[in-house]
Amino acid sequence: xxxxxxxxIKKGKDFxxxxxxxxxxxxxxxxxxxxxxxxxxLDDTESRNQIIKDLKILASQNKIIESEPGKYLIKAVSKDYxxxxxxxxxxxxxxxxxxxxxxxxxxxxxxxxxxxxxxxxKVYVYNKRQxxxxxxxVIEVIERHKTDFVGVIDxxxxxxxxxxxxxxxxxxxxxxxxxxxxxxxGDVVLVHIEDWPAKADSPFGSVIKVLGKPGEHDTExxxxxxxxxxxxxxxxxxxxxxxxxxxxxxxxxIAKRRDMRDTLTFTIDPKDAKDFDDALSFKxxxxxxxxxxxxxxxxxxxLQEGTILDDEAYQRATSVYLVDRVVPMLPEVLxxxxxxxxxNEEKYTFSAVFEINEDSQVMNQWFGRTVIFSDQRFAYExxxxxxxxxxxxxxxxxxxxxxxxxxxxxxxxxTLKLDALAKILRKKRMAEGAITFDKVEVKFxxxxxxxxxxxxxxxxxxxxHLIEEFMLLANRKVAEYIxxxxxxFIYRIHDEPNExxxxxxxxVIAKFGYKIDFxxxxxxxxxxxxxxxxxxxxxxxxxxxxxxxxxxxKAKYSTDNIGHYGLAFxxxxxxxxxxxxxxxxxxxxxLQHYLDGxxxxxxETYETKCLHSSTMEGLATNAERDSIKYMQVKYMxxxxxxxxxxxxxxxxxxxxxxxxxxxxxxxxCRIRDIKDDYYTFDEKQYALKGETSGKLLQLGDEIYVKxxxxxxxxxxxxxNFLRRVEEPLK
Length: 730
Description:
By secondary structure, this protein is of the alpha+beta class. A 7-stranded mixed beta sheet has the order 13-20-19-16-15-14-21. α4 (217-227) runs antiparallel to α17 (603-637). The longest helix has 35 residues, at 603-637. The termini are far apart.
C-alpha cells in the first residue's frame, strides 16, 4: 500500500473549527491529537504541533473538555451549537431556522454536509459577534425530513442517476445497477435514499416504484402523490376488511339512538359529490322557534379503534382532492355508501341539534347519536335557485336529475328560513371580527380522458354560506361544550396574523391605493374585510387575496386551545366532516366518551395525533396545489398561439410573474425575454425599470403575453412579453 501523501500547511493555520466539528460528530468519544490528525489526513510534525496547540486553546476557552490527559471531548452544551431545520433555497444554499436564534443563519453550499431541505440538523454558528451576518456549518443530520424522492432516471452502463424537478433538491441520486429494478431509460420513478457515504457527491438509492413516462397524465398525478408520500390506493387487506363490515341498519342499534327519521332532512353539496358528510333537519316549534339539526355521518360507529382500517385512516388523516380525482381517507364502501347521507336511505349520524329563535340565538342544544332519513339531495346550484327565486320548480339546466322537477313546499320553506338564519349568523360573525376570504377557486372541465377542455371559477353564494354557517355553528358549540369542562379535546386553532408579513403586504397594496389599520387586533380584521370588499372584481383581486391569506397564520389542530382568529371564535373544532378528515372522527369519539361521563383523556397522546393530522393536511394541500398547477400548464400547452391579457403578480430580479386574467394561470416572463428595452430590478418600486425609456413594469400592471414554454414535469409556465395594454398592436 502506498503511503498517503502528507498535506503541508501554511504557517499559523488554525484547526479549531475542524477540531470542533470532529468532536461534535462523535460527542461521547474522546480524541487525542493523533486521532484528530488522522481524521484531518494530516501526519506531518508541524500540523500535529498546531493541533496540540489548538486543543489546549479550545480547552482553555471551555469549548472542549480534557477528559483525561491528552484526550478531549466536546463540551456537552455549547452556545455556538444549535438544533433546528434546514430551509433550502433554489440556489444550492440554505438557511438554518432555529427558535433559539433571532435571525436565520445562512449555510453556504460547501457547509451543507449532506443536509437536505427540512432536515433536522445540528449547526455550528460563526460570525456571531463580528457585526457580520451569521453563517453556519451543518455538523450533523439528526433526522431526515424525507428519504423518498420522485425523479427521472438516466441509466448508464453500470449505474444510473435520478434527477428531480424539485428546485430545492440540489443533488441527483446515484442508483447502483442492481437497484434499478424494472425502470427503463427516462422513466419517472420513486427512489429511496439508503445511504450517503461521507466522501460521495451524491446519495445512494434504489428504485422502489416505476410511475411511468414523463408528461403522461396518470404518471404526473401519481408522481405528485408520491412526491408528498401520499398513497394512491388502499392495501388489499384494508379493502378486504372494509368489505366485511356489517353496514346494515338494525332495530337494536336504532333503539340506542335518538330517532329523527320523521323530521324533514336534506343535504346540499357540490353537484359532483359522492360522499355526503352532513345533512340539515328543520322543524318549526310551537313556541315560534326552530329546531335545526346538523347531522354528521357516524363514521366512528363503523371505524373501530385498533383495527387495520382505523390505522390506515389515521395514517392518511385526510382525503386528498386532486384536480381530476379524490384519494379518499376511507375505502369507497364506507365513504360513498355506508357513511354517505344519500337521499331516501336511513343512516346513522352524530348530531348537534339546536333550538334557535328568529334572531339566530341558540336557546337550547343537544349532542348525541341519531338515525335520520334524508328526504332530498340538492346541489348548491339548486338550493341557490330556490333562495334567489323562491320558486319550487328546479329548471332542467341546473337539475342534477337532468330534467326539471318540483320541490315540496316544506323544503322550500325550510331552505328560505335556514338561509335567513344563516345570514344573521354570518353578520354576527363579521361584526365580532371574523375575516372572510372568498378567494376565487379555479376548476377545470375535463373530458373522459382527464384532458382539460375549459376553465371556470367556483364562487361561493348564499347556498354555500348557508351550509357553512350551520357547520361553523356545530363545530363551535361542540368545542365550547367540552372546552368549558376543561377536558382534553381536539381544537382547530388559528393564531393572530404575522405582523411582519402584514407590513410587507401593506408595502405592496399601497401601490394600488389600499391600506391596513394596525392599531389593534380588531382594527386589523376590520380593515382586511374592508380590503376584500374593495378589491372584489378588480384585476388585482386574486393577487391581494393571495397576499392576505399568506399573511395569516396557518390553522392547525391542537389540544391547546388559543381560539380561532380568522373566525373570531374562542372555541372551535372540526366535527362536521369525518368521511374526509380523521380529526373529526377523534372529536366524535371524545365527545361520546365525555357524554358517557368518561374522564379526561391523556393530552400528550392527542397532541401527537393533532401534529400528525396537521402535517398530513399540509401535504395534501401541497399535492392539491401541484395538481392544479399541472392542469393549468397542460391547458396552456394547447393555447400556445394565443395572446392573453395578464396582470403582473410578482416582480423579481430575474423577471416578472404574470397571472392570466381569464383563467388564473401564472407563469414567468424572464427579464432577458422582454425585448423592448434593457430592464433592471428596482427594489424600492417593486418594478422592472427600462434603462432607455425609464418605463416601469410593476405589480398590478396589465400586459399581453403568449406562452413560450409549458413544462409539465416541472409544472412551470414561461411567457413571452408582447406589450403593455396601452401600447398599440405592432
